[in-house]
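Quick one, tokens below:
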């Protein structure tokens, strides 16, 4: 039976305030929590046992899957204090059932990818590798682990998050999905913080172990930043990225209980959550609207996320904005791009405008 470990213990700081009360893998993208898309993909690839390496808000994962009835064994390896990526993998490996030589899939919990999981496992076994890393090419590799390989795909070095221009020796980066020989997992030091990127991989390469890369040009995105998160969700809806949980490609995924005014335009792969209300002449473009959100007449949202129970006032404009839950943005606000609005915050009508305000001054001069 194929086994997998998913790393889901990170705090998701770049996605705050959405991650203040929900771990990143449990946020909704294209109608389901991201982890459910990942689980469906793993099951399609024949995985029969998944170990979640949890830490931050760990109990919410058990809550999410308590009624899961499909044919998959789920185990939880909870870290009281976060053990880092390598420590988390080592801690989760305790719960695996397979023999020492078995190939184990290890996945970061925030990667949306079109990688063929069966193919990478087959390749790993054919090469009798100790570890096989999925690699992808990105225009700007600075936020990732750089992984140059030789002509035979052997990994030459591993450099996590290069700091200087000289360190950027390749555009080929760690795509956050690995196949490990089980005995290699078990050799990671136990009971202390270990970074798989900074310690384990460089150590294995320096020790001459059989570490290979598998570079593909499949769809790939790390959903760890707000813009990547909304774009990943939109790509699932429009069919650029695929998930067993998303039906045929469309312009928008609208929950059956949402109410959309016929004059509103919901497009670009947007998702509208349960019981949301979208008013007349609203534009929702490539955005995620959570449950019980109201968007009033004439408001426009582009590349934005609005968490549950929030209100966006009429004629307000949001671009690349993250709105926490229970927030209230009054009418005619024009927010500067890339704002993060805290849960419960209130912005009065005409409170913020990029292009200047004509509202009369309320003070006496
Ligand atoms: N259990 C556990 N414990 N999980 C953790 C911990 C921990 O202490 N720290 C991080 N994680 C999980 C996160 O939840 C996430 O799923 C995964 O490990 C990777 O952490 P990120 O915070 O998303 O890392 P990153 O995106 O900056 O970089 C990683 O992914 C890149 C690909 O997207 C690295 O693996 C890079 O090398 C890689 O290029
Ligand atoms: Mg990440």
């Amino acid at each position: 039976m194929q086994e997998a470990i998913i790393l889901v213990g990170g705090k998701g700081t770049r996605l705050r305030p959405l991650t203040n009360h929900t771990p990143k893998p449990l946020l909704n993208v294209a109608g389901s929590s991201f982890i459910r898309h990942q689980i469906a993909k793993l099951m399609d690839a024949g995985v029969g046992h998944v170990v979640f390496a949890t830490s931050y808000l760990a109990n919410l994962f058990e809550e999410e899957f308590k009624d899961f009835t499909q044919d998959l064994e789920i185990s939880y390896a909870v870290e009281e204090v976060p053990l880092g990526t390598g420590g988390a993998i080592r801690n989760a490996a305790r719960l695996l059932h397979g023999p020492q030589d078995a190939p184990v899939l290890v996945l970061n919990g925030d990667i949306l990818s079109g990688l063929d999981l069966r193919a990478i496992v087959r390749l790993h076994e054919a090469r009798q590798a100790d570890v096989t890393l999925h690699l992808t090419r990105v225009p700007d590799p600075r936020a990732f682990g750089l992984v140059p390989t030789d002509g035979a795909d052997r990994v030459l070095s591993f450099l996590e998050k290069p700091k200087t221009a000289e360190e950027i020796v390749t555009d080929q980066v760690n795509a956050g999905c690995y196949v490990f020989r089980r005995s290699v997992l078990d050799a990671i030091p136990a009971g202390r913080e270990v970074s798989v990127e900074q310690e384990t991989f460089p150590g294995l390469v320096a020790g001459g172990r059989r570490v290979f890369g598998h570079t593909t040009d499949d769809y790939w995105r790390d959903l760890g930043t707000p813009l990547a998160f909304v774009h990943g969700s939109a790509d699932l809806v429009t069919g650029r990225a695929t998930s067993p949980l998303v039906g045929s490609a469309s312009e928008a995924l609208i929950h059956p209980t949402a109410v959309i005014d016929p004059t509103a335009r919901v497009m670009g792969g947007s998702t509208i959550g349960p019981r949301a209300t979208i008013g007349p002449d609203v534009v929702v473009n490539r955005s995620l609207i959570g449950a019980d959100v109201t968007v009033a007449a004439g408001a426009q949202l582009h590349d934005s996320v609005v968490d549950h129970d929030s209100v966006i006032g009429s004629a307000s404009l949001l671009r690349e904005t993250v709105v926490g839950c229970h927030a209230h943005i009054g009418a005619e606000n024009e927010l500067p791009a890339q704002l993060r609005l805290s849960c419960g915050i209130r912005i009065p009508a005409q409170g913020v405008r990029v292009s200047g305000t004509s509202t009369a001054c309320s003070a006496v001069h």
